[in-house]
Amino acid sequence: MPPRRWTAADVPDQRGRVAVITGGNTGIGFETAKVLAARGASVVLAVRDADKGKQAAAEIAAAHPEADVTVQRLDLASLASVRAAAGELRAAHDRVDLLVNNAGIMYTPRTTTADGFELQFGTNHLGHFALTGLLLDLMLPVPGSRVVTVSSAGHRQGGPIDFADLDWTTRDYSRVAAYGNSKLANLMFTYELQRRLAGTGTVAVAAHPGGADTGGSRTSVSLQPFYFRAFFALVRPFLIQSAEMGALPVLRAATDPDVQGGQYFGPEGFQESRGHPKVTRSSPQSYDVAAQRRLWSSSEELTGVRFPV
User: Which of 10, 14, 127, 139 is packed most tightly, with the most Cβ within 10 A?
Assistant: First the structure.
C-alpha cells in the first residue's frame, strides 16, 4: 500500500507560535501564511510593499476571522532595511518560532542592490542570510524553532559559485546562472547553518515548490523563445501546479514534527515539478562542505552580520 500523501490538513496546531514569512503577500509565501494563520500561528508578513502586505493580511483575515496577521516592511535588497526590520521585529516579539525565508526575485537584468551586490544573489541569499543572523537569538531558546529557506529546482542551473566575482563584474552576465547561483546559495546556507545549529534544538531546513503557478514561474516562461513558449503551453498541465500545492513542501518543512535538520523537501512527481511533498536531494555541488563554509565567511564579510552559533 503506497504511503499516505502529506497535505495541508497534516499541519498541526500552530497556536502560540510566531512565524515570520518573507514575501508573505503573494504566491508561495501567501499560501504558506494563510495555512499557518488558519492553524493559529501569529503570522508576520515581511514584505517590501507594506500596502500589498496589508491587502494580503486583510484577505487572510476575511477567510479566517480569528487569524493573527501583521505586516512588517522589509526590503531584502537593502541591508539597512533588513537591519531596521529585524530591530522592529525584536521590539514587537520576544520569540520567533519559525522563520520562512521565502521572498525572491528571478531572472532580473544585470543590476545591483542598494549595497552594490548583484541583485539576485544580494536579495535571495544575502538579504536572508542577514535577516536570519539578526533574528536567530530569538529562536535559539525556543524548543522546536525552525529556519526554512525556499530554494528552487533552478539551483541546478547555478554554480560553481565564483567567489572572486560574486557581483559578475568581470564576466558576461547570465540572469539564469545568477538566479541559479542564488538558489544554490540558499541550500548551501541551510546545510552550513544546520551544522552550526546541531545540539541547539533549532533546525534549518530547505524546500522548493516545484513548478508552481506564481509570478516568478510565469516570468521565466515569458523570457523564453516563442517555440519554447508554444511547446510549454502543451506540456504545462503536466509540469505546473497551483501555488497552494507549491506551498506544501514549505509547510511540511515548517511544521511536520518528524522533520530533521538539513532535510530538503520538494514535490514527489516527475522532475519534482508537481505533486505532494517528500524529502529529496539537491545537486551534488550543494553538499560541498568547503564551498558552504566559504560562502558563509563571504556572506558574513559582505553583510557584516555574525551569527550567535
Answer: 127
